[in-house]
Protein 1
Amino acid sequence: MAIVDLSTGTRPALRTVDVCVIGSGPGGATAARLLAERGHEVLILEEGPDRTGAALTQRGPEMYDQLYMDRGGRATDDLSISVLQGRALGGGGVINACDVVPIPEGVLHHWRTRFGLHMLSDAAIAPHAAAALEDLSANPIDESAVNAANHLLRAGANAMGWRGELMRHNRVGCQGLGTCLIGCPANAKRNPRFVAIPAAMAAGADVWVRSRAVRIRDLSAEVKTIDVRALDPRGYHEISSVSVRARTVIVAANAINSAQLLLASGVDSPHLGRHLTLQPQLPVVARFREPVHAYDGIPQAFAITEFEQEDHPEHGLWGFRIEAIMGTPGIVATMLPAVGPENPALMARYSYLAASLVLVPDAPTGSISLHGDGRPRVRYRAAEAVHERLREGAKAAARAYLAAGAEEVLVPVQPPVAIRSEADVARIDAIDFRPATAPLISAHQQGTARMAGNADEGVVDFDGAVFGTRDVYVFDSSPFPTSSSSHTMTPIITLSRFLTTGLADRLG
Amino acid sequence: MARPFAFLTRRRFLRIGLASAAVLGGGAVGGGLWLRGPRTDVDGLDVLNAAEFTTLTNAIAATFGPTTTLDTSGLARSFDAFVADEPAANRRDLRRALQVVEASPVLFGGYGTTFSRLTASERDAWWASWPAHDRLLLRKVSLAFRKFFNLVLYGDPASWSHVGYLGPRRPGDPPR
């Protein structure tokens, strides 16, 4: 089986399969693989390109344009949060930081007790969680691979007496190129592109890239029709139409695009598009006297976990987490607050910078709706509980960096807050997070097709089937009732394996 | 495709404000032309007209200051090329965003003239006030433009020596 690029060459007008999987990220690729291995005829639709090896050029402007949704420009409607969402064969796995963090026990307990997801018992989930780790080739980050920036954050955490950890990751053969967030040309990420998708294809699955599913028709019929648009080679414009017919449709296009597709398809649920969590992250930047060269090596290895809570009685995952990070100069510059001569002056210190992200699990209060032209509108207003933890996290990050010897710590909000000593830390309390004043990002979109026991309380049932449809499923992070983990790749694979195994058993 | 400036289309008050300012500028048609800012001839643009290009160039200059180590000369054309690949609705939104920038000193700043006609120091100060401005509209327009300017400028290898970036190691390169 080959990967067919619909932007070039001959395009079929109609294709009929057993199973159409929409989205090739961790959820969709996993589902496609398991069903293909069970003998079903599977077609995977992916609107992004297939980019591996040298095609991952490590050039920021080009890669953000090609590997991220909306050319890297997706954001909440008030521009407060940049929504980083992969658009490539392999989905978010192509552009993520490779962190492997399973669903915490406390979150699963919360989902069972608070949301009735009793089928997610420890015994039921355990084999799928283990299989997910195997799929990812999960392994600890070796001490020799910890770069200076991560050492500094760890040194600061140790000085403060805070708990932290070197995370597990899904790299094999990593060469420390440092451009994980815009793709790895060494092909070292064991992401769906290199694991589940080849396995699915080996079992007979077909893959179409540059193919955008825009509507699912006949939702209650035995055979559904998916309207697909072929995109041009750069992915900017729709150039032709193709129809796919399938008995089973699995939607796994990310919490935003899955909701968009289901809304466009006429799925009628008061919960569809609601309960979005974005898990906002705030950068904190430290400047040191000596060069750090944080852009070399694994950007994200160490995390301060002291303040993270996995079993909050109301929210499950709560508190905050601080993780080292760094990007190429272009993306770093977009996060920094300087305008005018201060801009090049600050960027001239790029080699002396180390940075972290304060990651805050949030309550599911966001929503997805459709603009008149069908594009998704991401509406999200962070509660003060989120702002409070962002401030606390920024203060903790500042203290850690000061303890590690930073000359200055910058919280890059507008107006910016500079910290040079403990006496300055209290300035962070004045940050009000007015819309479009902080460089918040979201790398983990969840919710929007909530899983529940009945249609009054959710969009999909405990098998992941969309209420009111026949054999239309959602197997990505959309069904998650709350934030699942600090990093969603592993939970998505775990739940997709669980749900797909059940589906495969029922299909026979 | 994203419409980062789509919020401008929904801003009815903005259209009213732009029309009002045109009248204040001396007649609807003449005022409208005045409100668009001065025009210098520019060849080879894909989408922007000369006045819009001038506004954009001035916004870029105000974003980075009078730097002698960074070459921002190609940034406006990069933006023009970027927009050329956008759907028609996005291009309209961009034009409106540039109108906002050009008319903003009159509409929101209490100045008697448009963005490109301000003195350089006035323009720099006015543009620098946008990221933390009380008016959300200005914060959003500023944020959207600055993101593009910074990503493209510092993503250009020509800028890397300025920031001390040796460039990415390619597969097989020895460790540094």
Note: Residues 27 and 127 of chain B are 27 Å apart (CA to CA).
Protein 2
Amino acid sequence: MKVAILTIEQKDSLVGQQFTPNCYFNPLEDNNSDWVISIEEMNGCINEEFQWVKTLPLIDYVPKPTIDPLVI
Amino acid sequence: MPTTNYTFNELYGAGTSSIDLTAGTPYTFTITNNSGSSYFVMETVSNQNGVYSDSSPKNLSGSFTSVTNIATAITSSNYVAGFSLPASTNGFTFTPAFNVTGSTLKLRGTGGITLEISGGSLADTFIQNAGITSSIEISAVTTLVNQLESSSLLNEIYAAYPFIGGTSTSNMYNLVNPQDTDEAFRLSFNGGWTFASNGATPNGANAYADMHLDPSINLNETDLATWGYFSRTNSAIYGEYVMGVATGLVGGIQLIARRDDDLSYALSDFSSVTWRGAINFISTNGSGFFIGAQQGANAKLFKNGIELVSNSFARTTQVPPTGNVYLGALNLNGDASNFTDKRCVFSFVSKKLTDSQIVSLNNIVQTFQTNLGR
């Protein structure tokens, strides 16, 4: 899966912001400590203030290990 | 009964558009006036010449009944109705003779009044607020609401999401209370969701929807709970949850459709007293309508209306977890995690349902999907 890589400043500017009505950016820290957003957020952004996300470089997504809280 | 509220800011000056009104349906207008003498008017939008013509909609043709506290007689024509209001809670019922398109009727008020309009069908309110225009979807959701109502299930549901309309705006509304507020359990989408006529699909990486429903606040030990996620994706991702909330090892409500170990799972843990149902089952197909049910001593897991497993675990007094239920992921200690990629075509949280009620709900929702062709 490809994701778009952000600087810390870019990440901070997206937190709490909508990229399309009723959809909020959700920057994620990957396993390389990079902040990223998804292709869906990138391509789906119609917020004029954040059109710059469409020009972000893409990288392969390396997720952090999933912690399973399941208790049986 | 669906309600729409207007603030004094919305009513002041140029006013705001009304909701759509259905001919022959009574609507109750409740106006709160906390100041002195005030005024409320319902005004059809005039034509480009500023007048009404034969082609102007006769929006105020109909009947005004059950008038309470209105200081003077209602002044009305087919196009305008005005009310002089005392400082009080005022009201009337308006039954339109013709269908009213909300955008052609302005609601205006002075004196800082607020307005609540109640009435009409829930399906019509949902369709209007969600902006549903497809005749197939309109028919399907109308049937869905009618069947839930006739089966006495509608009043048991706190929140239900049909995921129709193909946009984030149409998908966010709670079917049983279609208002754009957190209190109405309107969804807030985060991250990479894809919306289409076949449902809403989280990307499995950072997508989740906040229901704004906190089991520690919105659920209780008397009514208990039932919760479900209708998946159309047979994926198997390690550690994923399709919905839920947990604080550490203490869960609110949780649901797993299928993970890499073929596990399906439902847990409820929102009581401060004794109840906790944790159950699991081996499932090799993650596509289906998965429902978890806390019915009392037993907690159960259903798929497509069939009971897979029933367990009864109990624990001693413990502080229940706090936090909102997320769809598409688990709300773990306030952060979204354990994301799923399972396309969702329906999800809900309700009071305790019996086994037969769960079967009825499943059948109604399955019919809904068939009517939509998905």
Note: The longest strand of chain A covers residues 2-6.
